[in-house]
Design brief:
Cl-channel voltage-gated family protein, Cl-channel_core, 452 residues, Clc chloride channel, mainly alpha, 17 helices, transmembrane helix, ClC-type_chloride_channel, membrane
Length: 452
Amino acid sequence: MRINDEVILFFSVLKWLFIASLIGCVVGVVASGFILSLHYIIEQSNQYQHIFYWLPVSFFVANLLSQFVLKRHLGTDALIDAINKNYGKLEGSFIPTKVVNVVLILATGGSAGKESPCAQIGAGIGSVCANLFRVDDIDRRKMVLCGFCAGFACVFGAPMAGALFGIEVLAVGVIVYDVLLPAFVASVTAYQVSSVLGVTFFYYPLTFIPAFGQGFFIQLLAGGIFFGLCAYALVRAIQQSTQATNAIPLWRPLKGLLGGIILVGLTLLFSRDYLGLGLNLMEDCIKGIHVSGYAFLLKALFTIITLSISRSGSVITPVLFIGATAGSFFSQLVGADQSTFAAIGFVSLLAGTTNTPIATSMLAIELFGASVAPYAAVSCVLSYLMSGHQSLYASQRLIIPKSGAIAISPGDAIGSLSADRKPTDIRLSNWLRRLKSFFNNLAKSGNHLKGE
């Protein structure tokens, strides 16, 4: 029996509307429960001014659990790898078994985020639904990715950006179009459910955007380059710090104890502002309230120590904090509007560290309004390009290099590209070859005339 393509597509759309809505509802309920519980615990712990003195103990316990109890934990990197390589087939429990670690770290003031557990919750629920429906590998991958995107949407409070981020973070240079509809439906559903259940999100539509002229666009271009270099430096610092920590010949829990002591000392030396999620200072920065020019450097230091020592928590919230405060610093440097550049830095640093310029441009629209969109998009793309072939997620695939002049084989995981590799051959386009040949001939003619 022959059936028109349109009929097949119609029933395929109905199928994915149902599946994506189901996954989105479940992810919204479970992720909201986690987020609300985490916020309550953090709120209660913040009532104790010196709770950060418990950081050495929480780091010690977190490393102890990681080493002896939670060996099969799935991190965001492992989820990306499973979706890319194994059609989303997840090894280990679908429940984020390191939720206890994340709560311990954040409750006592560790500089980390909450995105990783939500992404794990979403991907795990997608995997369970795939098992229940007994789907093939292609559909399993879509269902796991639906849950993955829905988890990010619950954290960002931006369903379109959450969906695009979950898709774009898989590979550099491509977007999988066949999963767009289910990812959007799952993300929107999860976001709406979490909103109904009481999860609150940060929105701050910018009321003032500088005019295109008067040097603003030049400042924007310089800012995009600055955020890209910051992104490169942050990724490399986290990588090097993690390698250095792993090389220390000490029992892992003892490393956690020492790392916690270092953070306590830094907190006493500087401020508590750089502990935990840091949402209040980040929001103040975007609202135009003055913050210290070195705030982004201190937050980066606190984050690097937390992630390399504790091996728990997510890095996205700290990246957003660092981006906003770096934008504030840059605005002070060039005499620009603080709110505008804090908002642009907020999304640009995330674009550079995760190679997701499209998702972060959408995030700017959903959080700060459409008026900032053209400028945020330019800065996000610049940051993405200037950060090089680096990523916070080593499992991210490099499909299309950031420049055709760089000879890198596509398809490999970014983590397999050694940052210390020898310089690669530069692929010159035809017009550059002709230009090079012209100047070479010109130099030869000049030397010939001198000889005469």
